Amino acid sequence: MVQIFHTSRNIKISLYAFCSAVLLLLISFYTETLFSNGIKSQAGYISSKALYFICVFIISFFIFHIIERRNDQFIKYWLRNFLLIFVPYLLWLAASWPGIFVWDEFWVYQSSTYFLLEYWQSYLTSYFFILAQYLFPSAGTIVFIQVFFMSAITSWVITKLEIHFAIKRLKYLIIVCLILWPAFIFSTLMTFRSTMIAMLELLLIGLLYFYSRESKLGTSRALVVILFLTVVLSTWRTEGIYHLAVVPIFLLISLGKKYTKKIVLFTIVALCGVLFINNIYYIFNKDNSTKMRYELTAYINPISNILSDRNANLNNINLDIINSVVDVELMKTMPDYYETPSFWNGAVKEGFTNQQLDQFKKEYVKLVLQNPDIFISARTRTLLGASGYSENGKYTSDYISFYLRNNEQNDAVESLLSNPFNKPMISDIRSIVVKYLDFSRSKLGHTSLMMVFWNFTPILLFLSLILIRINSIRDPLIWMSLICLARIPLLFLLQPGSYFMYYYPMYLAGFFVIIVYLLEKRKKYTSKNM
Questions:
Q1: What is the tens place of the pLDDT at every residue in 446-498?
Q2: 3-state class percentages of the chain: helix first, strand second, coil last, to nearest 5
Q3: Of residues 372, 369, 379, 355, the one with CA closest to residue 298
Q4: Which of 128, 247, 328, 406 lies in the 20 to 30 Å Cα band around 506?
């Protein structure tokens, strides 16, 4: 870490970044008055201020570093590509202001106005919402930051591709896909955590690939950034924990014995970071009930489908233990491959204990092992439903438009729209944007457009093919594909419903992995025939 700041130039940049962080921290004491409804969590409030200062310092350092290197050829290319993506997305955001809000985010936003750390979408998402509003007191700032990250990360990858593979026309085709393809637009304008996770995963695999090819993977600067990304991706969603194993193994194989001590230190720090982030929530919030309730979303869907099946094997299953946590009879009446209706209709019982939950999980495992055919069949339908193969799949749409159109009662939505900075700029234009995105989920004749615009199975299959086709375990493409694919078996087991957003990290990162694979193939073919 010292290497990053030890030159006189970097000391100057650090001073600029520090002054910027101090200035924006002071301004945040004013901006908070424009979005806050009071402080209900002192721990959340104080820690958010400290985190805001750190984040502003790091991002400011990065921006000043870019400005300092503005005459560098790579920076010029990167800036040009950045603007080609950023400007269209900025227009998308302006037209849909304050962005696409679906459901859970309304309550996360409402909690953020009280500096409460909401577990439902991960307390990291609560911090993200609070910090964004410190910058400017609007929910639209959250989406603006996502637009910035999407533009910066994808343009960085495209610039690297441009230099490594001399792509010209293909570059513009990639950019057109990014700025017009509904799945990319909707996911970037949407404020679920899957959006930021997808961007950070793309950045991680980009760093692993290009730094490996450029022999920069073992530098302290690269390892610090990769460490940060590994920790965040391992904790922001439960299934991301595999990064904690895959990334260190890749580093060990790629860098060799010479870097063993560095990699051991990397792994220890990453593990400590994951443990710290996973447990710090309980320092701020002693109530474990929300976490326990949220955990059940991974079990409700399979249980309801197994229990409602007349051929289910229930021998040696203690239904009383399951019934102590969820209402078994109610779940039998509400089986669903694509969602968890019983969860939202009172199946989860109040006041169950940690011990009861642990016993419930053991019975759940027995139930699945005794009914693997029903479980696999149901889970397969859930997965395929998220990829456009069923009209019952859950393709989230903008709830703000629905709310304004139907005048429904919803305190969380009203809380968001009561802030004048969150009001849609031009409702008619916003409706056009939403209709364009909704069109991608409609039918054209007998053809479901969901299978065109939201189908992730071709990417999944292509990434699997890359794993099979590449023979060398030292090839970064194997590990890039593995990082994208490793979440799939975990989602197969744990996903509550058929939501595309769970697979969006694989969709975005996998899109670029496939491009890299094809470009490498073309490069090898060209060199052989020269």
A1: 777 888 888 999 999 999 999 999 888 999 999 999 999 999 999 999 988 88
A2: 75, 0, 25
A3: 379
A4: 128
Neighbours of 140 (CB within 10 A): 26
CA separation for the pair 413, 423 (Å, rounded): 11
In this prediction the pTM is: 0.93
Strand pairing partners for 444?
447
Q: Which of 216, 51, 219 has the alpha carbon at shortest distance from 130?
A: 51
Task: For residue 159, count CB atoms less than 10 angstroms from its CB and return exposed for 0-12, middle for 13-18, buried for 19 or more.
Answer: buried
- Rounded to a whole number, what is the distance in angstroms from the first to the last CA of the chain? 44
Task: Look up residue 264 and give its two tokens.
Answer: 């051991």
Tokens of 126: 């609560």
Name residue 348's beta-bridge partners: 326
Q: What is the pLDDT of residues 356-378, one digit of tens each?
A: 999 999 999 999 999 999 999 99
Query: 107 Cβ partners below 8 Å, 6+ apart?
Result: 118, 120, 412
Reported as type and span, the H/E element at residue 126 is helix 123-135
Return the closest-CA partner of residue 196 out of 504, 404, 432: 504
Q: Distance of alpha carbon 212 from its chain centroid, rounded?
A: 24
H or E segment and range at residue 448: strand 447-448
Tokens representing residue 295 in the block: 């955990």
Burial (CB < 10 A; 0-12, 13-18, 19+), residue 280, is middle
Helix H or strand E segment including 443: strand 443-444
Structure-block tokens of residue 407: 């005048």
